[in-house]
Design brief:
By secondary structure, the protein is mainly alpha-helical. The chain is built from 14 helices and two strands. It is globular and about 70 Å long.
Length: about 375
């Protein structure tokens, strides 16, 4: 359900609704939803909150794509020689111009204001609209939608006992099919991972491989997008010393990037753990299809994550009787991911140690 006063525009694979010369404001639409909810105008509540969720996806798509696009272009056009840190200065100056131009053009293309308050952004990131929507759906007797809205909020707030009881209530209603109660914000890699596990249970090795390989690709793409979101920093730590000011604002950026892996909880503590699990499914499935070279590559990649895993070490011994040693090559995507992750954790550890901060007490 979208705004009736808009016409359709296609952007970045997302349908955006706009009237020719009118600009949408995410802040205004979200606040209209809150106002409609408080005044028990349920149909309007649904209209405005669905609209705010829709525009939020457009807002994220524009910013993420501009950041990734500008970063990719900038890395290929840097100075060949670094003179007194001028290379990094050039990088940020070029990035600034690229981002400003890209965001200006893309927001104008979809007739949408680019400025959104931090309060509204935080609420959208926390899936707050679904906390409103489930009740609005309920009041309009749309119980299947109410169930999925409540569940979507509960996924991100597993400690919310009230919402948990709401979900339990909905799935007990005859109008609600529990199989159709879904997380409306689930990512593609999560769906692919579940499909891969189901294929594995059915001994369908080819489908398991297809789904698990796509899981890795989609997860890495998703995390890169999540990391790009972190470049919006609402709180800036100012200092008259330029180097100190820059350094103080680097840690929140790295911490935010590391937090992207929190989205995998409670099933996995990190993206590293998820990738290891997927690689395990892959090595078994490749083995079942006699694709021993691919299996060896998956084993080597797994051991780059958990080098002392006894079961996988034993698996490697078995594969060594089937393939040559050169088959145990680590996947380049896994190697890059691990190097980046370890480097970021090293930088965070360094900051906490230099500032006498208890890392466990301030973990991110």
């Amino acid at each position: 359900m979208f705004f009736k006063l808009f016409k359709l525009i296609i952007f970045l694979g997302v349908i955006v609704t706009c009237e020719c010369l009118k600009f949408s404001s995410l802040d205004v639409i979200y606040k209209k939803g809150v106002d409609a909810y408080s005044k028990e105008r349920w149909s309007e509540c649904i209209l405005q909150f669905e609209g705010s969720l829709h525009l939020y996806k457009v807002y994220k798509s524009i910013n993420i794509n501009c950041r990734l696009k500008c970063k990719s272009e900038n890395l290929s056009n840097q100075m060949k020689e670094d003179i007194e840190e001028l290379e990094i200065f050039e990088y940020f100056l070029v990035m600034r111009d690229c981002l400003s131009q890209c965001q200006k053009e893309e927001f104008e293309n979809v007739h949408m204001y680019s400025n959104v308050s931090d309060t509204v952004l935080n609420n959208l990131q926390a899936r707050q609209p679904y906390a409103y929507l489930h009740l609005c759906y309920y009041e309009m007797n749309a119980l299947p939608k109410a169930a999925s809205a409540a569940y979507t909020y509960h996924v991100a707030h597993s400690d919310d006992d009230v919402m948990k009881r709401n979900v339990e209530y909905y799935i007990q209603q005859p109008e609600v099919d529990v199989k159709e109660v879904i997380d409306l914000e689930s990512e593609d890699y999560q769906v692919l991972y579940k499909l891969g596990k189901q294929s594995y249970k059915n001994n369908n090795w080819a489908d398991t491989i297809a789904n698990m390989e796509e899981t890795i690709t989609d997860y890495l793409t998703w995390e890169n997008s999540c990391r790009a979101e972190c470049e919006h920093q609402s709180q800036q730590d100012w200092s008259p010393e330029f180097v100190i000011m820059v350094a103080n604002n680097i840690l929140p950026l790295i911490a935010c990037r590391q937090k992207c892996q929190d989205n995998l909880k409670p099933l996995y503590d990190s993206g590293v753990a998820l990738l290891a699990d997927v690689l395990n499914y892959l090595q078994i499935s490749y083995y079942r299809l006699d694709r021993f070279d691919d299996a060896a590559k998956a084993v080597a990649s797994y051991l780059s994550i958990y080098p002392t895993d006894e079961d996988m070490v034993e698996n490697k011994r078995i594969y060594q009787t089937l393939v040559s040693e050169k088959s145990f090559a680590e996947r380049s995507d896994i190697v890059f991911y691990l190097k980046r992750d370890k480097y970021e954790k090293k930088l965070m550890q360094f900051f906490h140690e230099e500032n006498n901060i208890d890392l466990d007490a301030n973990s991110v």
